[in-house]
Amino acid sequence: MSRRALMDDATATPTVLSYYEAIEQASAEMLDAARHGDWERVVKLEGACVLLISRLKQAARERPLSGDDSKLKSRIMQRILLNDAEVRHLAEPWLPELERLLHGKSTTLH
Prior knowledge:
Order of helices and strands: EEHHHH
Largest sheet: 2 strands, antiparallel
Number of helices: 4
Radius of gyration: 16 Å
Helix content: over 70%
CATH superfamily: Flagellar protein flit
Shape: elongated
């Protein structure tokens, strides 16, 4: 199934799988930002993921996945979890700064 085919043709609304793919893309971007030490971008992308997850939950209630789609969802979730694990590993030394960023108390780390 192509990523382009993930829109519901009848309503032109995102499908449940399209939300999973968007979260996967955001998690990959978070990993890239973490690898470059761009923790502000990581925090912004995390906020985007929270919004996507909220929309995913609503879409999943309205349109449950089929068996084949559930298998694809599982593969996407595995990639998201791997990205998340690596971001967490990279973030460990930066957790105090991330905490300040999350609470709007950014400081310079020089």
